[in-house]
Design a protein that fits this description.
Helices cover about 30% and strands about 20% of the residues. It is built from 5 helices and 4 strands; from the N terminus they run βααββαααβ.
């Protein structure tokens, strides 16, 4: 099966229950900057220290989706994950500040903001209740 938005994206299965956070952030309305942002998040151009840092604070999975200038991020964590504590730790890790500063050229957010300040947590308003 070809992976695409019309065929869906496979999800990682976890052996323990997880919780999910959803966030949004807008990019600057500049097609060249958007393409560079996408490139910088590709497997070939990711910074390994950033991936390692995300995992080290307890995040199990993180996905970013895009439409136009709008980003949507899904973060899956263990049930005992503490959002504020984890992102305070993340902000202190090597190269994280450098990454945030670099990413700020693409984003419609305060260039001095941390990741936790730029990305806005969303409220869930619907799901298929059992």
């Amino acid at each position: 099966m070809k992976i695409s938005k019309t065929n869906g994206y496979p999800q990682k299965a976890f052996t323990t229950p997880v919780k999910r956070y959803c966030q949004t952030l807008d990019l600057k309305d500049d097609p060249e900057l958007i393409q560079e942002y996408i490139k910088r998040h590709s497997e070939a151009h990711q910074w390994p220290e950033i991936r390692e840092g995300i995992r080290s604070v307890g995040i199990l999975e993180m996905e970013i989706y895009i439409i136009g200038t709008r980003l949507f991020m899904v973060v899956e964590t263990p049930l005992d994950f503490e959002w504020d504590i984890a992102f305070e730790e993340l902000a202190k890790l090597p190269r994280q500040a450098e990454w945030e500063e670099y990413m700020s050229i693409f984003q419609q957010a305060d260039a001095n903001a941390t990741s936790a300040e730029k990305w806005k947590l969303m409220d869930r308003i619907f799901h298929l209740y059992e």
